[in-house]
Amino acid sequence: DLGVAKAQKGDLDAALVELDRAVEIAPRFVLAWTQRAEVHVRKGEPARAVSDLTRALELEPVAATWAKRGIARERAGDHEGAHADLTRSLELDPKSVETWHWRGCVNEARGDAEGALSDLGRAIELDPRYLPALLERAAFRNVRGDTDGALADYERFLELSPSDAQAPAVRDVIAKLRSGR
Hints:
Distance between the termini: 51 Å
Order of helices and strands: HHHHHHHHHHH
Structural class: mainly alpha
Number of helices: 11
Oligomer: single chain
Strand content: under 5%
Helix content: over 70%
């Protein structure tokens, strides 16, 4: 808990000292491994996070940890490993909106446009108000030249969250798309 508290205050190095001690004292304490992994991700050390999450999965192979390791692998540049972990997570928890979103992003990085659109669409289907997937799909559609699809997603985003911090940028993109630029 002390490590988590220090991480919440932004003192990541001190958090790691506490979390290192926690896994030393209780090497089978899954939460210590996953919390330490989260600190490594925040510090820009995704490979270390993958290692910690691998240990957590050895102890308790649950959907959330598979998803976390998939995200860490993606941040480490391992798109195929990320896809495999996120797929395993979805096998265990097929209603995880965030995992569908992340696998959609991984599919984009892998060059699987059909998979990306399918997974992002599934996230939105499960939670039509989940803004990150809506924005990701809008941007992806825009890049692929699907102006109508991008506009629909961007407009839905504004309808759901007109005062969001990203709303001004979304309005700019909509204006550019409508003007044909």
